[in-house]
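Take a protein:
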Amino acid sequence: MFNKPLIALSIALALSGCATPPAVQHQPFSLTVAHINDTHSNFDPVKSSFKADGTRVYNEFGGYPRLQTMAKEYKDEAKHKDQSLLFLHGGDAWQGSAYFKLNHGAMNADILSKMGLDAMALGNHEFDLNNKKLNAFISSINFPVLAANVDTTQDADLKNQTNLRPYQVFAFDGNKKTVVKDINHLPKDKNIVAVFGLALDNMPNIAPNTGDIKFNDMVKTAQATVDMLQSKGIDNIIALTHIGNAVDLDVASKVNGIDLIVGGHSHTLLGDFTDLGLNNNGIYAQMVKNPDGKSETCVVQAGEYAQAIGRVNVSFDAKGDVTQCVGHNTLLSNDEFYHHADRSKKDKFSPVETTRVEKFIDNHEKITITDEDVLLRQRIDSKYKPAVDKAYGKIIAQVPQEIKHERRPGDRGSDNHGSDVAPLIAEGQYYWANEPQVQKVTGMKVDFSLIGAGGIRTNIEAGQYREGNVSLELLPFSNFMSVVPVKGSVIRQLLEQTVTATLPEGSHAGKFPYGGHIRYNFTETVAHKAGKLSNVEVMTGTEQHPVWTPLQDNKTYNVAINNYNATGNDGWTPLYQAQKKHSGRVDLAYIDGKLTGFKVNNIEKVGDKYQVNYQGAAPNCKAANTVCNTDAQAFIDYIAQDRPQLVPLTYSVVTFNRITNK
């Protein structure tokens, strides 16, 4: 068993400088690490596309059964070679699909426990429900969740949770692997590897329900943990993180002694995929010099939505330093290919065309055709899929061609306008907030709407589009809509700050802002560091006949935003600042089927969290008679009433000019 007070004490001693690492000599050692991250309950494959010798191929990537097949292949290969191997998850297994909406953490626990994971990082979306359900999830899985920088001692639900650990230590004898329970008595003549976890230290401002957990500084905790482990004679050290690739690189440059960082959170498919018609997302297995100027840390991450798996081979010398770190991510494709996104029977590749694509894939190391694991697919289809299929509800639109969502313009082959999905949703929320029955509740005509890219979880696929595609997949967080009166100067500051925060390479782009009936330009002036906001304009009129007028700093605008961003979360801090003393905001939820307004008095900061104070009762989203997902309902109503042929807007809301000379 792991004694948390003793662990905390040993890390505290390391922080105070009392731990002096001994000069330990080991045998040179080679380790293979298979890794995934940000799988977000994508148990089924994701519809996607790639290019094969210049031809666009519409296919499917991933899904848990394909991940399972490839993980088993890696494990079998390691066993055959008597090679040491770990299988790690970089966090955010929760949220992201209809399965999660219906089954919460239970299905994740069931399916993940069948995949043979050795450990998982604690992601921010693991806090999307409440700590009671998170505790149940962690208790029911057969691998540990790791986070060295969290203190759960004051949290009623998680304080006694022994499977949420700061680290896990493994002893290897070739392919044979055992868990070390007592690091004060390490096994002799075996290679020892420690894996410790790091969670975001600003978690309370990103995740909605962190309870009474304290999140400590990532860099200080990482160095203290490494020092403590080294003081026990453990030199082969992996950080399993959910903090984003840019932050991983920063931590590596500030902490001595981490050999490998296996990351998550920024959804970064590291590697150059341009010859597949995809993007170059940065170096896989990038080596970063530590502050001592001697040792280096290798950094990896494997994309998103269970579409790919990473594999890295790390070689350690007798001192535990990395001498080689090589590998790559592999996209896992099905073997059925189409010429168009709607994937109709007439568009299916001919046998000759299919053979040509298969040959291309066979010669490419970063994509492979992978069969689904039969047992895992059967379990998903028999136990969980029927209820999900039933929950999708009515058809509300036809989608002639796939509409893509890209968080940050320019990423993954998108143009400088970015997402076509986000402006549509924002337009829908503007439309809904200005319906007479909504205006009657708020007492306000909305001027424009804003939406953060991270709240949008899927593309809009071609074909029939149902209510459940919106409420279960696209906008799954059950946020309620807010109408917020705010000065133009606050909006200007919000746009500038949130876009600037997404400029660094590998940064988490969930906070990137899009809008409806508002547009802006942002031009990067210093690559990955700074830029200038310009041409912020508010639209009056209609999509067919728009009229654009400059945003006025001193004018008060009524803005439709979901409550998460309206409160200032995820770096939308200017909205919190604007509502600290007083707010005219109205939040909207359905009580007994009737749309009801909840007037906000102000927002205050309590500890690390923003707390909304209401003039009367707060919306109780847990109550049986209360429906809070008005953000999704707004878009559903808009599509059904005004956009049954669902196509992108005819105007762009964002023009984001990056410096191309990097």
